[in-house]
């Protein structure tokens, strides 16, 4: 089972970044999103498709439509430059899978 | 404050054994699962498996089943990842993750991460 993400997304500061993640089981399984800055451990930024953990700015939001989940970052800042990974489970809940990651570049 | 503190970096030779650790604090260790995630140099995240802090229940990714052993010692709030015979391809950063795991749906959420343990395997 695979989760497919675009390798890279680029936006200018203040614009909106949208990062997609596609997988056949996503209509049945929740997805989570993690942010990983260079040299650091990942951080959970969205869970259960659209819930935001405490301490994560409101600029980060998640949505789902069919086989695609989307992480949206509004008013992108230079500090948002990082790799973003989606994560879910296969349709029968056998194992956890991560997407390949998307490198967000702030121009 | 929830913290996961991992053991330090290791440099090993192919064929050697290794056990790295992850100590949890600031929460009830026996109420959560602890998982392990591999990140090879310059690559993405790979889920290896999880172990329940309250008993010996352990689940493995098919990709890692038989390659590693995951365990937990609730008496010292510590989880372990071990290899019996390392290969050069085991060179990676390994993260422990506090895992919210729903047994019925297998929903897994990694809400706290350790700082990572870098394992280098080279002759």
Characterize the structure shown:
The complex is a heterodimer of chains A (107) and B (123). With 107 residues, chain A is an all-beta fold. Helices cover 0% and strands 44% of the residues of chain A. Chain A is built from no helices and 9 strands. The model of chain A has no long low-confidence stretch (mean pLDDT 96). Helices cover 0% and strands 53% of the residues of chain B. Chain B is globular and about 40 Å long. Chains A and B meet through strand 3, strand 7 and strand 8 of A and strand 5 and strand 10 of B.
Give the topology, please:
The complex is a heterodimer of chains A (about 110) and B (about 120).
Chain A: E1 8-11, E2 17-22, E3 32-36, E4 43-46, E5 60-65, E6 68-73, E7 82-89, E8 96-98, E9 102-106
Parallel strand pairs in A: 1-9
Antiparallel strand pairs in A: 2-6, 3-4, 3-7, 5-6, 7-8, 7-9
Chain B: E1 3-6, E2 10-12, E3 18-25, E4 33-39, E5 45-52, E6 58-60, E7 69-73, E8 78-83, E9 92-101, E10 108-113, E11 117-121
Brief account:
The complex is a heterodimer of chains A (107) and B (123). Chain A has 107 residues and is mostly beta strands.
Question: Main traits of this protein?
Answer:
heterodimer, A: mainly beta, six-stranded mixed beta sheet, three-stranded antiparallel beta sheet, B: seven-stranded mixed beta sheet
Q: Detail the poorly predicted runs of chain A.
A: none
| Unreliable sequence segments of chain B | none
Name the overall outline of chain A.
globular
Separation of the first and last Cα atoms of chain A: 33 Å
Main beta sheet strand tally, sense and closure of chain B: 7 strands, mixed
Kindly estimate the percentage of residues of chain A that lie in beta strands according to DSSP.
35-45%
Radius of gyration of chain A: 13 Å
How can the largest sheet of chain A be summarized?
A: 6 strands, mixed
Number of strands of chain B: 11
Helix content of chain A: under 10%
Estimated structural class of chain A? mainly beta
Structural class of chain B: mainly beta
